[in-house]
Design the sequence.
């Protein structure tokens, strides 16, 4: 028997669209035992939220998220607002006994995130952070192959997330579209926005980071405030590069920037082990590159695996071999896993607690970027 | 004011899923003035169609498509059944005054398709054939670039559609999953299934084909009937290769097979003109390769355009630069264009009449494959 | 004991440079038992041939190839002049008891080539045609893998050779740099120049062609004569596309043109068999693409083999893994194999007789291009 | 009038072959005014050096390099021996008035290299270090494009040199083939061997490095001595990763390892500027990737420039468009430039003095790898 699960969405921006799509589509492709229902959406801008509600078929809308958190007909709160609002909402939702799902990063800092973890654990509610790239089938395949020992001892982990959309000094900070450039709303720049993804995947696949040193830079020192039009200092990091040592003895290099011309959503990762290597690129998200050292010498090479077959993770639910899926499917998969977790009481990762670790590493990166010192974690 | 458009789906297989997804999602991303509603689905297998209806939220189901065609609450009939059933259903639906959308190819032969064209034109109902690859943003971008003259005079058009799923002699013919190998149901093999896509795109982009010669082959001469388990002769073409002359003076080469190991949905196309060339590969459907001869000599090359920006066709409706979309989005785009066509009374292509031309070329290919002669069209 | 082998080169153009490089370098890298010595070069233009002789260290020069063929101190004649001169020179050289190496194609037609075969066989002299692409290590690896059965039954063979250097109508015909556009000198256009390479490789790897049909085209009907400056009709084929059936039951498609913008030396080939596929591209000549169907399903894909390891064909003689070699190395390898053939009396392929088969197929292509009929070979 | 230049080679290993090939071939393709003659080769192993001399046509041989340095008939000394011998030989050669060319790195440390610089400058002899990758045509094209301002302000420089040949603990240290693992002979591991190449190119293209922090690692702590067979501690760095700040304000990341399975000679570099980006990969050494932001939005992308045209650096001397060259050609180009430098008295870069800077940065990397501190340069 399929149960209904009523979703209360907070926000109507880019991420709210991606999540709404996932809640809507999951039942069409996955049999999780739950059917999510878009019950309500909350945001202050009444006319914008109405337009959003109509497009997606939300049954109702609220202008204050606090009202929604209180509603008895809401089972799960999905937080799709800027980072500075995650903590307050999540804690209130947990206290109201709702399941809570938060966009990443969990919070602006580890300190801010810790009470969120406490709140959901105290309330005993299902909770998850939307580090969606774990659910890209190619990334999941990499995770499975590493876990099954195909690479042997790991020597290197390497990840980058490169973009180019803030190169112009005319891009403002703050506001609906550019809050990610405002340190108060975002907490940090590329570290929390982009490196956080790289770190979440890395820790998941390669285990904990034990120490690191970082270089951070703000190329453009002043930008207009989107609200006031006045110049004000830029508080975020425009670029960050990090050297890490993992607990398993391997070395890591991480880099993120919004000043790498030609890279749009350039998240790439690579892992080198004794027996082989694996690599992935978000721009070609359906492909895994695999170097298998066990193949006979003259026939060895990097195998380009098109991850679209029925025996690839999640793919049996979609189309037929050769037909690719896109970015938003990673969210649909995450919803499917979340619902499985609710059904089986084996929570889907990353929970708030697991995601807090990424905040901890982000904090260390920003600190090292200032101090120039190695930080032990 | 958004109007409701009630969809009657016939079939519950692979294509019915892709179409249902498109009807469902279009309103979330496109503002067409219509909101499709999944009103009913029809198929003979009652339990399977019930499962399908539940997954997708169809409001009702029918075990006989004839009943659905008669229902007053259905606005549009969407035909997702094997090719041998297209004509009868489409004609009945047109006569009942319904909009009609048919999976490709329009029919098994030009002769079978002609009355379908007559029926929809006589009834004056909106009609369209699901040659979905026209609506892949990268393919649409190619169309626009060719039309705008970026390539100049065209010399060559080249397309292939390669697969490898029927190499095993154990694959049967007929039945739910393998009707494409049964000549009675499918009409032909790779010609109508795969080359038809290549031809539809080619004619759309490069104009009419004036003559051709073809080679066809059936590698495996007998296969089991999926229903009876008895061996019976294979009537379809396993592979086809074609040389063509286009009306614009350019030369074409086309090839399709289900015996090209390593190719899953290997639809590739390339156009060479005086000023440049364009190429596309379905496995990387978000990319266009463009060689622009107007660039300074030492800096010329093939530019890999990642078709994910807001100013690329359809992409402004989806995510942000760098985030790719998948196969099924082409259907959503086709629905969006179909609805725009209904609203504006400028029918979205290809209509039944336009799609009939592809059947005509397919017939010529099969005839030439037998005769060994050039055929003038 | 290393023996000296005295080379008499005829011609000083592009191919004479590539061959001279091979004769010079072979002893530095390969231990064949012979040390080629650049003894003499012959051509009518005394000052140009002197410049060439100085650059390459030829010990002497001749203005008439007939003198060189008579010289007692010459062991081998290497023919690097336009196609219309191959026959006369080769026959004279054979009659003088010299080893004879001819640039490809052997002759303009099978009829012209037949007496060349007779002459070298009657004289019992070593002979070879410079179909150099067989000796690209990646192509040799493909040959070895196909022969060892890695692909199983072959279904498809596909090759193209695309260029774009004659698109401008201002390119003349005839003369030193553009004799390939003059049908009298070249015999044909892309068929003898480019397809001949594709056919030589195809027959070598996949066996004989039993029948074919072809389409040929001359896009630009008149060009200036490089000598007289007067317009005259173009007698060559600018483009050719061919459908073939191989004796082993597989299907072939071949295409060549000089009107494919963006392709420089675009020789690509692909073979599809039951167990796997192999592909190669001259622009990346150190790479083989291999799809191995025997790999576990979820890890299957196209493996990009970088053919630079010591256990790859010829590579043990060059650098270290990862360091690529270039176009001219294929000639050095061919010289090494030729000298091995001389030493062991197992002639290196393709001999004149073997290369005559390619002329036979080229003749059939040109005939079919005119008649529109299938030709049995 | 072409002058003869007599070369005295020291060493007969891998690099001696690459250099000998360059000295031999340069006159065949480049008109520099000089014709190098392989006059003598020196090494202690008499039989091996004889074999080498015969293969390459060296006119004479010496068992002690000191004798060769004294010979009046030698114009230039080319040092192709392990790093620990560079200084003594180079200084002696300079003092004897010879031109001196040294394999890279100049020396094991800046301190060791400084007297070499002094010696050649005091003697006033032509001198050069074989950082050959500057002369890969694609890399030279990048240099020219950056210099011409195509990228605008530079934000990021990124380079890696990845290999995988020392992963097995059975690889010994010391000896002919593996001296690069012996810290006494090599001075360092990947830093001096591989990163030195990356740094030389980076400084050449992007200007000086002002500060850096590094992480270094030795994965395998003990290896057999190739001479004695006894285990001894490994003194080299197996892997190094570096964060840098360039004087022009851009950020750099560098990484090198011999533990990246699947990478053979994996030197890659990328530069991101305001107006565009450029990238290169040694495995595809004839290609440059260029992202040109000035192109119209919908047609922007990474252009894959096949660097084989007559108007590309050095390429006018080789074959025709589309035909690639290999690794060793970079040395031939360097010889051509060196000889031009001698003729014009404008020394070809990098001179000993210029190459000393790379040693200085390598020293800083090794120091930071130990201290964990940023180092100002």
Sequence:
């Amino acid at each position: 028997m399929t149960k209904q699960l009523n979703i209360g969405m907070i926000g109507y921006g880019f991420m709210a669209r991606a999540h709404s799509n996932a809640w809507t589509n999951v039942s069409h492709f996955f049999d999780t035992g739950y059917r999510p229902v878009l019950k309500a959406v909350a945001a202050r801008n009444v006319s914008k939220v109405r337009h959003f509600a109509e497009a997606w078929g939300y049954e109702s809308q609220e202008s204050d998220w606090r009202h929604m958190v209180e509603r008895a007909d809401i089972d799960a709160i999905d937080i799709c607002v800027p980072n500075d609002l995650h903590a307050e909402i999540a804690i209130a939702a947990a206290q109201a006994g709702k399941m809570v799902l938060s966009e990443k990063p969990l919070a602006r800092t580890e300190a801010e995130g810790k009470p969120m973890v406490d709140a959901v654990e105290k309330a005993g509610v299902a909770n998850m952070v939307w580090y969606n790239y774990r659910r890209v089938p190619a990334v999941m395949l990499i995770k499975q192959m590493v876990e099954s020992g195909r690479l042997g001892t790991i020597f290197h982990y390497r990840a980058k997330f490169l973009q180019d959309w803030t190169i112009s000094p005319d891009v403002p900070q703050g506001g609906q579209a550019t809050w990610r450039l405002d340190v108060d709303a975002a907490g940090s720049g590329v570290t929390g926005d982009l490196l956080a993804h790289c770190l979440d995947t890395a820790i998941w696949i390669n285990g904990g980071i034990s120490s690191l040193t970082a270089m951070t830079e703000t190329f453009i020192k002043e930008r207009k405030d989107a609200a006031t039009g006045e110049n004000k200092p830029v508080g975020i990091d425009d670029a960050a590069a990090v050297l890490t040592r993992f607990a398993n003895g391997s070395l890591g290099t991480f880099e993120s920037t919004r000043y790498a011309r030609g890279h749009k959503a350039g998240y790439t990762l690579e892992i080198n082990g004794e027996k082989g290597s694996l690599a992935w690129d978000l721009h070609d998200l359906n492909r895994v590159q695999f170097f298998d050292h066990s193949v006979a010498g003259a026939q060895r090479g990097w195998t380009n695996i098109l991850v679209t077959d029925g025996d690839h993770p999640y793919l049996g639910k979609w189309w037929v071999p050769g037909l690719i899926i896109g970015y938003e499917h990673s969210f649909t998969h995450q919803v499917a896993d979340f619902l499985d977790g609710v059904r089986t009481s084996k929570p889907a990762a990353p929970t708030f607690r697991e995601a807090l670790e990424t905040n901890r590493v982000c904090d260390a990166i920003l600190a090292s970027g200032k101090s120039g010192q190695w930080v032990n974690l």
In short: Chain B touches chain A through 41 residues (CB under 8 Å). The mean pLDDT of chain B is 97.
